[in-house]
Amino acid sequence: MEILRTQNINKFFHDAEDFHVLSNVSLTIEKGEFVSIIGKSGSGKSTLLYLLSTLDTDYEGAIDINGTRVTGLGQNELAKFRNSSIGFVFQFHFLLPEFTALENVMMPALKLGKYGKKEIEKRAMKKLRSMDMESYAHKLSSKLSGGQQQRVAIARALINDPIILMADEPTGNLDSANSEIVFDIFREITKSGENTIITVTHDPDFAARSDRTIELVDGKILHEVDSR
Predict the structure, then answer these.
(1) Among 85, 134, 168, 200, which has the highest number of CB atoms less than 10 A from its own CB?
(2) How wide is the angle at C-alpha 70 spanned by C-alphas 221 and 92, nearest 5°?
(3) Measured distance CA(68)–CA(73) in Å, rounded
(4) Bridge partner list, 140
(5) Can you give the CATH number for the domain in which 96 is found?
(6) Structurally, how many domains does the chain consist of?
(7) Among 205, 227, 226, 199, which residue's Cα sits nearest to residue 45?
(8) pTM of the full predicted structure?
(9) Domain boundaries, position 21
């Protein structure tokens, strides 16, 4: 089942002169896939991820996610769609240091307002448990190690049960042991076939073990490799 499709995506940066950063990018991602986007710095991979995540709307072409044409939606509609349908994990965790791990995980769900606070806390603890972080729930995020903080960030990204998890260099600041933990978590997330992960990575080993690798060169898809 198709979960995401792009049609002839073109993206320009308008500085001193126009720079064509993405050129006619068309791709399809199936539900339950674990996809890695790779490429050298400046290839356009992070730019593409930000377009797919609807955080950047300045582009030509069309993007459909789970049957919804997100291209052309207003900012309020996009914000609501993102919070309910897309989870984000970044290279830096962006946890609020003055809040506990549990409080950080609860925040997107409190914003969505689908459940009451007690239910959200229960769901957040479940997510932390799945990351083997339940015992750190009431510890300030600033007191956690880098690997622990990234696991809390993944739990936060999953709190609203998004249909797609998008990750930008999720292991970029981690050592090999913690990178392996993150990979195993991502693999477990997609095991059921219900959750989809799209990640940008510089780590060739991480990419090679995902289901499919899409390589960008100069803003174009050079080739794709299916590892399944």
Answers:
(1) 200
(2) 65
(3) 10
(4) 100
(5) 3.40.50.300
(6) 1
(7) 199
(8) 0.88
(9) 2-226
